[in-house]
Known about the structure:
The complex is a heterodimer of chains A (687) and B (536).
Chain A: H1 22-29, H2 34-54, H3 69-72, H4 77-81, H5 144-171, H6 195-201, E1 211-213, E2 219-226, E3 235-245, H7 260-272, E4 285-286, H8 287-300, E5 304-308, H9 311-322, E6 328-332, H10 337-346, E7 349-353, H11 358-371, E8 383-388, H12 400-410, E9 413-417, H13 432-435, E10 445-449, E11 459-463, H14 465-474, H15 477-480, H16 486-500, E12 502-503, H17 505-515, H18 523-529, E13 535-536, H19 548-551, H20 554-577, E14 589-593, H21 597-608, E15 614-615, E16 617-619, E17 630-634, H22 641-658, H23 672-677, H24 679-683
Parallel strand pairs in A: 3-15, 6-7, 6-8, 8-9, 9-10, 12-13
Antiparallel strand pairs in A: 1-2, 2-3, 5-11, 10-11, 14-17, 16-17
Helix pairs in contact in A: 5-6, 7-16, 8-16, 9-10, 11-12, 16-20, 20-22, 21-22
Chain B: H1 2-26, H2 30-43, H3 45-63, H4 82-91, H5 103-110, E1 114-116, E2 124-125, E3 133-134, H6 147-160, H7 168-172, E4 173-174, H8 175-188, E5 192-196, H9 199-210, E6 216-220, H10 225-234, E7 237-241, H11 246-262, E8 271-276, H12 288-297, E9 301-305, H13 320-323, E10 333-337, E11 347-351, H14 353-362, H15 364-367, H16 374-389, H17 392-408, E12 414-415, E13 424-429, H18 465-481, E14 484-485, E15 487-488, E16 504-507, H19 514-535
Parallel strand pairs in B: 3-14, 6-7, 6-8, 8-9, 9-10
Antiparallel strand pairs in B: 1-2, 5-11, 10-11, 12-13, 13-16, 15-16
Helix pairs in contact in B: 2-3, 6-16, 8-16, 9-10, 17-19, 18-19
Amino acid sequence: MPASARSSPMAINLSPSHSMFKKSRGKSSSSQSPSDAASYLSAVSQADARSRASSNGKFSSTSTPALSLSSSVTSSSEDTVLRTGEDESNHDGLAFPATPPTSEQVFTTVHTEFGHCSNEGYRYTSQHMASEPIEAIHERDPPYYILLSTYVSYLILICLGHVRDFIGKRLKAKAYRELRPHSGYAPLTSDFDSFYTRRLKQRMAECFNQPVTGVAGRTIMLVDRTSDDQNASYRLLGTRTRVLNISSYNYLGFAQGKGGCADAVEEGIRRYGVSTCGSRLEGGSSDLHTTAEALVAKFVGKEDAIIASMGFATNSTMIPALVGKGCLIISDELNHASIRFGVRLSGASVRMFKHNDMKALEALLREVISQGQPRTHRPWKKILLIVEGLYSMEGTMVNLPEVIKLKQRYKFNLFIDEAHSIGALGPNGRGVVDYFGIDPKHVDILMGTFTKSFGAAGGYIAGSKTLISHLRLRSHSGPYAEAMTPPVLVQILASMASIMGVSPASLTSSSHTTLRPVASNESSQALMTSHPGPAPASMIPNWMTLPPALSDGSEGKNRLRRLAFNARYLHRGLDKLGFITYGHPSSPIVPLLLFNPGKMCMFHRMMLRRKTPIIVVVVAYPATPLVTSRVRFCVSASHTKEDIDIVLRACDEVGDWLDLKHGIPAAERWTVQKITERSGELVHPSA
Amino acid sequence: MDSPSSENLFTFLSYSLANFQAAFFRIPGSAVLTRYVKSSHQDDPGRTLLEVILALFVIRTLLQSRTRTDRSGGKHFIQFSDKEIDDLVDEWTPEPLDPPLTEQQEADLAAIPVIAGPTGPKPKLMNTGKPCVNLASLNFAGLAGNEHIQQRAIETMRKYGVGSCGPSGFYGTIDVHTELEQRISDFLGTESSVLYAQGFSTICSVIPAFCKRSDIIIADRGVNFAIQKGLQISRSTIRWYDHNDLSSLESVLESVAKEMKRRRSQKHARKFIVTEGLFEQDGAMVDLPKLVELKEKYKFRLILDETLSFGSIGRTGRGLTELYNVPAARVDMIIGSLAIGLCSSGGFCAGSLTATSHQRHNALSFVFSASLPALLAVSALEGINLLVNTPSILNNLQENVRAARAILDRLDCVTIPSHSASPVIHIHLKTNSTSLHPSTAVVSTKPSNPSSVLPRDAANWTWDAETEEQILQEVVEDALAQGVLITKAKRLRGQELVDPRPSIRLALTSALSKKDTEKAVGVVRSSLIKVLGKRR
């Protein structure tokens, strides 16, 4: 798609009629003090003058020299640019954009929630390129001294822990009371089971369960805390810190308290209330569920879909309804806990294969089909292959073209968990299927969650109409689990519709016949031909009015392209800095390997204590293998290129301090300066 | 022809051997080793042989895959050639993943009630387009559609957005979660509590977080599906006692205590009793004071599922602990749902700080799931405030329950297993012969086998699930035609450990006036009489 077709989607000037909630919005922003606006305006004009003086050629296409104060205050720009009700300075560089908006650009998002970035150069399309290898990028090993010191670190930690336990149990019996039998009760947790938690995780507990407040968007507010007793308990300090958030699953940046989706949710709560009170089969179904399920099915390109109120429960309650005794599940060794939970409940046999290794998968398939069920050698009733589209700890993408080839040969059923990939991958945001340009009809079951890209909660399973009907009646969720709540449903509808774009019903049919003259005699076929097309207006509730930028799909497209750029930029940038990273370069999940357990806490702390504080997620055993402790970045469309620059700069400095650059030899590395200047070159695969 | 090549081979071998020897002796300490081997061989040649075999065995064990048993090469493995495998692959036809629906399934699907617009005491139905009186949705305290809660939810959404975008561990712990956890534990009177994102998934995870393979769980035979799944995942030893029969529990406790004394290996096993406060299956209520007494006597820990009773039972909705005036701290873990009692979403487990912090690290659906959306947490919080500040809500509910029971109890074509204070009323059909279902409190002479989930008298159950489901569905449809929405208790027949008897489930609400309730229950009553009368 040519970029010129939608030269500056974020710059579409909103007509006053765009929001039917104008009144309420005005009310909410009225608390804002005028001094904020004034100080910001002066900042804007100063920065604008600076940028004009430096006459940066890169921005010449978008920045207009004439910035009149009056024009930048028009319409809703002031209440979207500024944080409401909070007196905030820009000392950390997070509150206001580095490049001030010009009179032409009216941003409809709050910068701290969804960063302002109008440079069309910082866009990319997430799509599989023939030149790119599908196989997982080979995992680079660190020098031996790193491995050795990692093992030694764990050894010291374990020995120290045992020594402390041994002494503690004898000298401080009171503190260890919970670990020993007392008054006839066995300890609730055995000291062996909890050893890892107490002696290893506890030491770096400050990296986890950090309380936050506000929107988990581009930035987030930390509720500051401190511990006086080595992380046994925390004391809140009563202060808050705004930090750059590169940790939340907010791929498309729909975690927003302002904007079209939030307006729709407000209207939804007013119309539908907060809950539908009950399970789907026992009076908890509402027309919103039906609408949302139809839209999800349309979005992913399947006949029907079913929604569950929790992402974890989507897998754990629906997989048992798909397979049972006499069936076999083939599962990737790194599949998520919810899949394993569901698999265990199903009673089916399970075999695992090495992560993303298609050769191992084929060998396993040949073995299990030829051998049949254990002992009896009867053929398997069904074989279900469960893989994830994008693996949340590795950032690897399933080798889907190869899996589909195997599927055609070996006739198994395919279940793809797109928890992280839906919305985050593919030129149209339709997940890993879209990324590889594969027709969704080749996949039997598409599962995904709304927590990540859609800024909502819960999950779905999409498949053929009969299959979904079976799930409605037979999955644990149907009769026993609570139905999804209306606010969440509306958020899904609004965000999904803005990714797809909404087309008036009459317009779609004509445009399709002209664009793709495919003879279709069946309704399901017709659906396939229009995939991935816009959502017909009849599929979203008639009371939901999205602002034009959302309903024409331009902003959705823009978000997808921003995410794709940010993901590749950070990934390739870290590589070029010399770090060891895992995963696919287009994946919005970017793991950076740390190895030594001691570096996890340090990395976390050093990133947090910077001038622009950054929060990161550090993960270690048991979520990863013992040696490969890592930092996991989750890039979002809400990040601007400057935000990624900040992260890269921070990583560069911290990486030097902590000796983390073991990926490529020093001679091949780029400096941060070079990386930030030549970002386009890095992102495009020809580089 | 042959000899030169073999000669070459020998030269090569001797050359490499010499090289190897030289390299070996260059390793520091190698001389000591050689000397040791030499001298030991001299003393006892047999020992050398033994040691060599031992070394080979060690190498073999190390090289073997650790998961050999489930890999190829097991006892039942058959060796096939590639060609044979190809043929077998061609031959194999899997069962379809989506077999066509049966007629019954189609009918069931079509009968699912869908509400158009907001739910509440008198919602509009999609199917008919007409308003009806709602005795199906779980809206005990009438919080659905509450203006104040909606306003707070909107304010929260404006401040926090909708999704939390992360699990609790990774920046998904929002300050309102902590606030709600604090509020719940204050409300119940426990030390702490922990929030889950879904009510159903709460207990499924709580049980396996504590109960491991070597532990012992004693559970009621009538526990709900979520508990059954939790027990399945835990892999603990499970003993069953008759549904809501505490004397049966006592005898099982007695036998387990004896058994544990006998077996020393079980000395450190954790012991749990898992049961429900208000049973989801039939609305029976457990005698909590007696239960607590028993569990303290036998030193068991009690996991009490108050999914239905939290927010609906007790003066202010604290559940059974409030109704029976038992301090919540004496129950080790209380599981509740925010979706049912508070008309929001999510669940919680309240208990000691040790218990909740253990869950924060080990409960699967807590660790691996995104946390509850902030607006739902705030809605639940406001729900608790409303319950505390307006005790009349649950008072009205109890009045409605009494009114409904007064109408239904006089009906002699049905039996009602539910407790007289339960806002959920299950209606069973009365069988002609004397029923032996445990809920009818016919005590069989011999106790049931504690290791089997089936009670002793299961063989004597005379009801036919399929016909009863059909009759009840007719009642449901008849009531709906007269403007009252009720539902059968929906079950996953075949997936439950013991299929409970089909029933109609009425869920009363304080949002309806006593008069409306009486009128609606009267409709249900006349439908029951009409349909059952026709059958006879």
